[in-house]
């Protein structure tokens, strides 16, 4: 089903960073929408639980060199 995950993302220092994270998350199969806030250092991701896990979302962010944690 469709779920929303929120991630704390640390290390983003400019809007190019947050745009890169957003683009990477949007490219993950099963993600229907990702919005990243530079100011809040957070990502909000709408995704299909049948296609992708929260752990894979974290990995997509970490692959860019940022640290990510799943928020409650
Ligand atoms: Mo520019 Mo943001 O190299 O880290 S993308 S500062």
UniProtKB/TrEMBL annotation:
It is found in: Membrane. Belongs to the cation transport ATPase (P-type) (TC 3.A.3) family. Type IB subfamily. This is HMA domain-containing protein. Residues 3-69 form the HMA domain. It comes from Coccomyxa subellipsoidea. It comes from the Eukaryota. The chain holds residues 74 to 145 of 984 of the full protein.
């Amino acid at each position: 089903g469709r779920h929303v995950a929120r991630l704390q993302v640390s290390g983003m220092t400019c809007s190019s960073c947050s745009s890169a994270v957003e683009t990477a998350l949007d490219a993950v199969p099963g993600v229907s929408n990702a919005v990243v806030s530079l100011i809040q250092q957070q990502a909000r991701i709408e995704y299909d639980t049948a296609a992708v896990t929260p752990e894979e979302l974290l990995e997509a962010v970490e692959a860019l060199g940022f640290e990510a944690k799943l928020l409650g």
